[in-house]
Structure of 4-hydroxyphenyl-beta-ketoacyl-CoA hydrolase:
Amino acid sequence: MIDFDKIVAIDIHTHAEEPCCGHRDDGYDEFQAGMAKYFKNPAGAQGMLPSVQETAAYYRERNIAAVIFPVDAERETGFRRYSNEEVAQICAENDDILIPFASVDPWKGKAGIREIRRLVRDFGVQGFKFHPTMQGFWPNEHQFFPIYDAIQEEGKIALFHTGQTGVGSGMRGGMGMKLKYSNPMALDDVAAEFPDLKIILAHPSFPWQEEALAVCQHKPNVYIDLSGWSPKYFPEILVKYANSLLKKKMLFGSDWPAITPDRWLADFEQAGFRDEVKQLILKDNARRLLGV
Ligand SMILES: [Zn+2]
């Protein structure tokens, strides 16, 4: 078990990037290379992304707990997914430091709902990651509501990518990815329809930062994670809200391995956050949200 009093922070947003099944799908390496270029992450460019086991060791060394998840976008990308069960299993073996989330492509419908319930009940999964752009869906369409219903009933968290993305960035046609789906305003509908579903809007939501702040301010069940960007580049209004109105709703996240917590935390110190707010963002808000 994680000793939440002893750890220094909770990173709410890290990725399990291992490709599935031994050999990689066509285009998977190019996709990862595009991401690496966007984030200026040399490990990704060389196909040297860390395994979940290596991620656990890295975080353990720093005494930081980490939420980790794969992304299932099989329908939209054609890339076979990394098994949720396998990720959860490695998390269980490293339960002093890792917190398992999972990802189920929302287009899987009833089979997806069955999987969500099984992952919560049999594998201790604490939340689910969605990526509207990479999964190619409007999160506020009714056909996806039964999925949120299941997550809400299980009392778990739904984390949504918002704003621009490294996925497909600079590739021909952006790899077919459409940015519009990641407008956080679509999640205002979800937060209204599912008032007991805990929702995280991931990342500064450029070019819809103010939309994200409005949704988070208006809906008690919505949080914002600050992953995917160095705090050096945070818009002023985001820091302003984090320091005041939304100080209990903001969460530390890195987006490992795209951005390392070392870099994020160093830049966070310089980004104008008030001292009493830093502790809330780094740990206390996540504890409340996770119920630990
Ligand atoms: Zn991410």
